[in-house]
Specification:
This protein is mostly beta strands and about 180 residues long. The chain has one domain: Beta Barrel (Lipocalin). The protein is about 10% helix and about 65% strand. The chain is built from 2 helices and 10 strands. The protein has a 10-stranded antiparallel barrel. This is Lipoprotein. Pfam families: DUF3833. InterPro entries: DUF3833 (IPR024409).
């Protein structure tokens, strides 16, 4: 019986992943997202983390400072969590093609790959987070939606072993 349930769960995950929205769906949407323009200067973000059941397990604010020189960018992020803790992440970004980017950060395993279509960027990467004091790697499917030249909505699905373990939602605005 357990074996059959695992097969059903695995097939459901595969089917649901196959039904996800294609990035190309957004190719005609305006304004066209250019990371080097949006993430240049001071920004602020507000967000939350939800677990697999949808329960909000963390709220946060982020101060961001972005700078670009040619195709190379730095995005310096400081997270302020509702529980009083703080976290720092510095992204090193590279524009590798007209609508493609790569990113590196100390808590990202390897390289984050992103592609833009219209007003949307889709990042894929593995992030190491701390869970109960231990490192825990999760795969992120990160979607950034440019609302207008000053505002963006970011939704991220987190996966472990192919199963959805949580979601991050945040608003990012230029200051």
């Amino acid at each position: 019986m357990k074996k059959h349930m695992l097969v059903i769960i695995a097939l459901t995950v595969i089917i649901l992943q196959g039904c996800s929205t294609s990035l190309e769906t957004y190719s005609d949407e305006q304004p066209h997202l250019k990371l080097e323009e949006f993430f240049d200067g001071d920004l602020v973000a507000y967000g939350m983390v939800q677990d697999y059941s949808g329960e909000v397990i963390q709220r946060f604010r982020v101060q961001l400072e972005g700078s670009w020189e040619g195709n190379e960018g730095v995005l310096d992020e400081t997270f302020y969590y509702a529980d009083g803790s703080e976290q720092k992440r510095i992204w090193y970004l590279t524009k590798t093609a007209p609508d493609q980017y790569e990113g590196r950060a100390s808590d990202v395993e390897g390289v984050a790959y992103g592609k833009v279509a219209g007003n949307v960027l889709n990042w894929a990467y593995t992030l190491t987070i701390e869970l109960d004091g231990e490192p825990f790697s999760v795969k992120l499917d990160d979607w950034l939606y440019l609302v207008d030249e000053n505002n963006m909505i970011n939704r991220t699905q987190m996966y472990k072993y192919g199963l959805n373990v949580g979601e991050i939602t945040l608003y990012i605005g230029k200051q």
